[in-house]
Amino acid sequence: MSARIPDIRLVRQLIPSLSSEFHKGQAGRLGVVGGSEDYTGAPYFSGIAAMKLGVDLCHIFCEPDAATVIKSYSPDLIVHPYMRTTEKGNVNGSSKEDIVSRISTVFKRLHVLVVGPGLSRDTLMQETARELILKARQDNMPIVIDADGLYLVQKHPDTVQDYKKAVLTPNIVEFNRLCESKKIDVSKFKKEDIVQHLSKAFGGVTIVQKGSVDYISNGDKVLRCDTEGGLKRMGGQGDILSGLIGTFLAWGKGYEDGVWKHENDVKSDDIAMYAAWAACDITRRSAHIAYSKHGRAVLTSNILDYIGDSYDQFTRQDDSS
Predict the structure, then answer these.
(1) pLDDT for position 1
(2) Which of the residues 31, 34, 236, 258 could staple to 300 if both were Cys, CB 3.0 to 4.6 A apart?
(3) Are 234 and 290 in contact (CB under 8 A)?
């Protein structure tokens, strides 16, 4: 199937207009599961990117050594030091069941869950994240899975199998490993077709194949995002993308619930696809602006500064572009 660019007019319908009639939380409440002793920047980038795009609240569920550091990055994030590594879980007597129970009590306050930024491959962290994904599935919550969350899916594909409210965001290495887990020979397909086959193998999970051009598929349709990005490939850009996808999914939940008046033209089955495409577009625009201003010295933290400008460009771009 030929990959296409979506109808921008429809994608924009997912964006709520700011209104004095809204109350706190109606423009989106996001949760991020991740953040370990060695990886504190990833969940921060995901969460703060979501807030800069427009969610009202972001909760980060991380392990205690990461929590203090993440709190020091920004007072805008609500940080819960509930996750545990295998070593510290054994010391503190925190079982997987206890951790999952404590975190999942917050789920009723969330619209979307992002799993993976800074998670690590520690056994208890991985097992806890898997149980949290399954809990979110029970609650019919949209889920974005990135980074070490994708390692989890590679090992346990059934975690997201057939769950059409899940969005996976693999880079080239992660994508190939996911294909291997589903016994898909990537050499047999065109680049833009592989993502569709992988999505079908997962039962319609939305997959964002990141690269020089981003391809997005739910097994039925394929979208492409070729918006110009930056030229430097520093870590953390995927974390930003995960937070932006989460934001659009949260808005999609509000769209479905009729939180604001709209034309009701977007089908529920298209929300994850449009959310992923819009987030890819804005991430690329932000990276492009940051690179154009900083060149080789650009950092992922610089990209955060241009999310607002990129959003403005996104809402103004011509529908036929």
Answers:
(1) 66
(2) 236
(3) no
70 near 265, Cβ under 8 Å?
A: no
- The number of beta carbons lying within 10 Å of the beta carbon of residue 321 is 7
Full DSSP string of 66-95? HHHHHHHH-TTSEEE-----HHHHHHHT--
**Model-level pTM?**
0.97
* Residue among 251, 279, 29, 77 nearest 169 (CA): 279
Q: Are 287 and 237 in contact (CB under 8 A)?
A: yes
**Cα–Cα dist 133/144, whole Å:** 10
* Predicted pLDDT of residue 92: 66
Residues of the chain with pLDDT under 70: 1, 90-93, 318-321
Residues 84 and 124: their CA atoms lie apart, in Å, by 7
d(C-alpha 121, C-alpha 220), whole Å = 32
Handedness of CA 238, 79, 253, 54 (dihedral sign): negative
**Edge-to-edge strand list for the sheet holding 222-225:** 78-80, 57-61, 29-33, 112-115, 143-145, 166-168, 206-209, 214-217, 222-225
